[in-house]
Amino acid sequence: MLTLHDIQPYMDEVLSSFKTIHRHPEPGFCEVKTSALVAEKLREYGLAPETGLMLTGVTATLDSGKPGKTLLLRADMDALPLTEDSGVDYPSEIPGMMHACGHDSHVAMLLGAARYLSEHKDAFTGRVRFVFQPAEEGKTPDMKEKAEALGLGVHGGADGLIALGVMEGVDGCFAIHVNTMGETGTLALCHTEAMAAADHMEIRISGSGGHGSAPDHADDTLSALATVIEVVQSIPAREFSALDRCVVNIGTIETPGSRFNIIPAKVVLTGTVRTYDPAVREKVFELLAARVSAAAAIFGCKAEVIRERGYDAVINDRAMSGLGSEVAAKLLGERNVDYIDHPDMGSEDVGYFFQKAPGALAWLGCTAKGGKVIPLHSPFMHVDPEALQYGVAMHVGFAMEFLK
Questions:
Q1: Residue 150: is its pLDDT beyond 70?
Q2: Would you tell me how many other CB atoms lie within 10 Å of the CB of residue 121?
Q3: Could you write out the DSSP letters of every residue in 14-83?
Q4: Separation of alpha carbons 29 and 366, rounded Å
Q5: Which pTM value belongs to this model?
Q6: Which residues contact 219 (CB under 8 A, 6 or more apart)?
Q7: 199 near 307, Cβ under 8 Å?
Q8: Of the residues 313, 381, 385, 391, which has the fewest C-beta atoms closer than 10 A?
């Protein structure tokens, strides 16, 4: 049976890859150095990587030489536009860019698993397909137009890779995401619902505008704004059950070209809608369109809601998540494995793979024991390097169990 001891000879290289990738973070569809490193390592392991998928995606298939199933193991590669303040001694060397979501560790862990499995093909049957995916965080604004012109998926990297055929012949999928809320040496899984569908909303309120000294001669867009906010925030609490898991949140408010003595002619709000149930997802936008328009009309203004559809929900397969917990219990100990009853309202595009074949996303604890918990997407976020050995072991252990 696989043990953590078996993984140790591979960890120096895993940690080296992790720190190198961390120092050179790259945004979605621009992961040039990262994908080059991945391809180089895979060739060293005797694999024949396919590169340039979705510009920077890399895949490789390891065949045991024995008939059996095909398992897809996935890692995302892109970073975030944040200035790092984590205090690690291998900080980002790219101004305004950092690995604040742990994708550097995801790549390094999967590379470690690829090396181990390449050297132990006798331990399983069938095939392992390694997928190093670009743009999980979505397209950066400067890449959006270019990506769409090249037909690089509607959302991020996963749906585009699927369109290119990476799921052909795949029987199951497994992915790991680091979890700063969990302690190093722990792992958590959801039975089924794991991460929410996420849509972007933009609300545009328009009126005549006017001088701040004469609101009686203007359409009051700011009063309309106050009412619109109240209407929007009331939708989850008053139109859906608390069990429906629905979040509608406003993130920004802008009054373009306005100042202290102007009643603005235009107000723009942006926000997010998070759901699990497809019917709830559609109903939210029906309600937004009707009620925002009505609220603005009270003050003689007009309003429209623009929806940008985001990722679908990530739904784990119960059997695959069960297998993940069994593997984790053997490697980490039962007391270090947790089933999460409340799914996360964050989003991830790994769920597109799971729509094509049963899969599971596991949350790997990455905060050192006694360390301060820092959320993902924070400039202070960092992964405890000690956590990587557990991720490598989980990839390998899951593959060996699934492909017995």
A1: no
A2: 15
A3: HHHHHHHHHHS---TT--HHHHHHHHHHHHHTT---EEEETTTEEEEEEE-SS---EEEEEEE---BS--
A4: 26
A5: 0.94
A6: 207, 208, 209, 210, 263, 299, 300, 301
A7: yes
A8: 385
pLDDT digits (tens, 9 = 90+) for 212-246: 999 999 999 999 999 999 999 999 999 999 889 99
Kind and range of the H or E run holding 392: helix 388-402
- Name the region of 261 (left: φ>0; alpha: ψ -120 to 50; beta: rest): alpha
Q: Specify whether the CB–CB gap between 110 and 104 falls below 8 A.
A: no
pLDDT of residue 32: 97
- Annotated domain spans of the chain: 4-195+313-402, 197-308
- Residue 153, pLDDT above cutoff 60: no
Q: Considering only CA atoms, which of 174, 180, 143, 195 is closest in space to residue 349?
A: 195
* Matching CATH number, 4-195+313-402, of 3.40.630.10, 3.40.50.150, 3.40.570.10, 3.40.50.720: 3.40.630.10
Per DSSP, 344 falls in state B
Query: Residue 141 pLDDT > 80, yes or no?
Result: no
Whether residue 6 is predicted with pLDDT greater than 60 in this model: the reply is yes
258 touches 277 (CB < 8 A): no
